[in-house]
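Title: Prediction job returns without error message
Component: structure pipeline
Severity: low
Priority: P3
Assignee: unassigned

Description:
Job completed but the reporter wants confirmation the result is attached to the right record. Sequence as submitted:
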Amino acid sequence: MPKVTPADYRSLAAFRYEIRKFLAFSEKAARATGVEPQQHQLLLAVRGFSGAKPTIGDIAERLCVEHHTAVGLVDKLEKHGLIARERGTEDRREVFLSVTPEGTKLLRKLSALHHEQLVRVGPHMVTALRAILSAHEKASVRPLSLVGPDSRRRRKTA
């Protein structure tokens, strides 16, 4: 296990702080539009899914929630006209999801707000992440004397 320095703790704490600030902003923005944060995340996961339309299972995985939790979120969003369900044609047990035009309108508004926020706070997040990665890279680099006797010869001839 690598040694964790006081600077490592500061870097991790700074990064977690930046993430938490962004998440707090995101939660507040979602609630201001009338949806819960997980509902916003579901809308984004459905709209941002690459490839075919996602199933509830796909979205449960993306949100890191149990299948029944995703079903409950979909139920609420469908009730508000923001998500549509479509049964599979080959397997009627499959349920595919899509964002409705009303859901797209709400998601566009939230996504624009999030983009603006990331433009403001992103540099702080990147700085905090770079500090963590930089410390990791320095810890991963072994001094030449520890590499082995043959490596010096190879480096000179390479």
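Comment from assignee: result matches the submitted record. The chain has one domain: 6-138.
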